[in-house]
């Protein structure tokens, strides 16, 4: 997410005024498992997830048949370190937006269960766009 640090939040404040911030609270283990299951095709940037979007043949890109690689920062021990660092850096950002009354938090482990709540919030804040036929 962005902003990830208080410095980034302060820089963002200089260019726009936020009226809504969404925080997704996903359990540490869920994030670690998902990120650790990510593999990429370096030449194209195609991303696969071994749990929910695996390649047709394990370890090779669907289109080229070339080997997939796991980025160093996607290995389980690196993911755990990244998540700890993110949590520490993001805490003051979350507190800032909470103090402004613009933070909306959602918790869960599955996108399809969290998204309806996020969508309802966004729909209540953003007016619908009418087509020319509806005007």
- The value of Rg in angstroms is 19 Å
* Main beta-sheet strand count, sense and barrel state: 2 strands, parallel
- Count of strand segments: 4
Please provide the ordered H/E string of secondary-structure elements: HEHEEHEH
Based on Cα principal axes, name the global outline: globular
Our count of helices gives 4
* SSE-based structural type: alpha+beta
Could you list the spans in which at least 5 consecutive residues all have pLDDT below 50?
Answer: none
Helix content: 40-55%
Distance between the termini: 36 Å
Percent range for β-strand residues: 5-15%
Overall pLDDT metric: 93
Major beta sheet, strand line-up: 1-4
Organism: Spheniscus mendiculus
Family: Belongs to the adenylate kinase family.
Pfam family, one: ADK
GO molecular function, one term: ATP binding
How would you describe this structure to a colleague?
Helix content is 43%, strand content 12%. It contains four helices and four strands, in the order αβαββαβα. It has helices spanning 6-15, 28-36, 76-99, 111-125, and strands at 21-25, 38-40, 47-49, 103-107. The strands form two sheets. A two-stranded parallel sheet has the order 1-4. It has a two-stranded antiparallel sheet with strand order 2-3. α2 (28-36) packs across α3. The longest helix is centred in the middle third of the chain and has 24 residues, at 76-99.
């Amino acid at each position: 997410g962005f902003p990830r640090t208080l410095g980034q939040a302060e820089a963002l404040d200089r260019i726009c005024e936020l009226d809504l911030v969404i925080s997704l609270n996903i359990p540490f283990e869920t994030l670690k498992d998902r990120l650790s299951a990510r593999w990429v095709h370096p030449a194209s940037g195609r991303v696969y997830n071994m749990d929910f979007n695996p390649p047709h043949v394990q370890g090779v890109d669907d289109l080229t048949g070339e080997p997939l690689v796991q980025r160093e920062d996607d290995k389980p021990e690196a993911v755990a370190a990244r998540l700890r660092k993110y949590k520490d850096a993001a805490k003051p950002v979350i507190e800032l937006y909470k103090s402004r009354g613009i933070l909306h938090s959602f918790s869960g482990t599955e996108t399809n269960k969290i998204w309806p709540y996020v969508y309802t919030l966004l729909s209540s804040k953003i007016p619908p766009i009418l087509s020319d036929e509806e005007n």
